[in-house]
Amino acid sequence: MSTPTKIVLPEKDLPRQWYNIQADLRHPLPPPVDLTGKPIGPEALAPVFPMNLIEQEMSTERWIDIPEGILEVLRIWRPSPLVRARRLEKALGTPAKIYYKNEGVSPAGSHKPNTAIAQAYYNREFGIKRLTTETGAGQWGSALAFACQLMGLECKVFMVRISFEQKPFRKLMMETWGATCVASPSTETQAGRDILARDPETPGSLGIAISEAIEQAVQDPKTRYSLGSVLNHVLMHQTIIGLET
Q1: How would you write the chain as a 3-class SS string?
Q2: C-alpha to C-alpha distance for 240 and 78, rounded to whole angstroms
Q3: Are 187 and 162 in contact (CB under 8 A)?
Q4: What CA–CA distance (Å, rounded) separates 77 from 14?
Q5: pLDDT digits (tens, 9 = 90+) for 69-83
Q6: What is the structure's pLDDT at 35?
Q7: What is the pLDDT of residue 140?
Q8: Domains in the chain and their CATH numbers?
Q9: pLDDT (0 to 100) of residue 99
Q10: What pTM was computed for the model?
Q11: Which terminus of the chain faces fewer neighbouring Cβ atoms within 10 Å, N or C?
């Protein structure tokens, strides 16, 4: 009998901890720096991120427990299928067996809810009521909108203008999950107004959208910023993919 095309881990075996690679690095990662190049501590990040996520960002513990409140949501689609790419093997003419993890089974259609759910949960536990973020093509914005809807948070997404115009259904998906989505640059922030004053026809960029999202986050003590890549804790939340495998 041939091996199955799809392998799905039983739900009871869903990982209960994330793996933190910082514990196994030969040398510690350099700390974040400010505009002058000087290292900054947790207090400087506190207006942007909740302290519980800052602690994860700085942690060197190898294993971090996943709270039941997060696992409860992840079980909606996790564990995700491990799929054998038989046709790709045939096309390549290789004797190797090629497998991929199908993260497209999540409600938002990507791997990004793995960290969006965790970030929304920890922000809620810290007493935050609203998250701001940027999105390019709309995948991250959709993931965070989904997460905020489930965690009872407001969500504001600044979407790069060119994508906002080209991908209206991404905006619709975010709004279906209760988020507010605006084209970036917008007139809602000083950063956006400054860019529009210099170039009213700008297509926007992720950098501009990030500036707008952070500007709004730091102006309200009940708002924080959320990011779907780059950060240590984002990488850690995504280790659930490999741990299932």
Answers
A1: CCCCCEECCCHHHCCCEEECHHHHCCCCCCCCECCCCCECCHHHHCCCCCHHHHHHHHCCCCEEECCHHHHHHHCCCCCCCEEECHHHHHHHCCCCCCEEECHHHCCCCCCCHHHHHHHHHHHHHCCCCEEEEEECCCHHHHHHHHHHHHHCCEEEEEEEHHHHHHCHHHHHHHHHCCCEEEEECCCCCHHHHHHHHHCCCCCCCHHHHHHHHHHHHHCCCCEEECCCCCCHHHHHHHHHHHHHC
A2: 9
A3: no
A4: 11
A5: 999 999 999 999 999
A6: 85
A7: 98
A8: 113-225 (3.40.50.1100)
A9: 97
A10: 0.94
A11: N
Residue 38: how many CB atoms within 10 A of its CB? Answer: 9
213 closest CA partner among 148, 142, 156, 136: 156
Output the pLDDT for position 186: 98
CA distance 219 to 239: 33
Q: How far apart are CA 89 and CA 43, in angstroms?
A: 51
Residue 203: closest CA among 243, 163, 245, 156: 163
**Four-point Cα dihedral 101, 17, 226, 206, nearest 10:** -30
Check if the beta carbon of residue 140 is closer than 8 Å to that of residue 228.
yes
| Dihedral in degrees, nearest 10, Cα atoms 229, 232, 234, 238 | 110
Residue entry with tokens 């959320």: 226
Short-list 81, 116, 114, 121, CA closest to 100: 81
Which token pair is 141? 């914005």
In order of 64, 67, 84, 154, 245, the CA distances from 22 in angstroms are 12, 20, 31, 32, 21
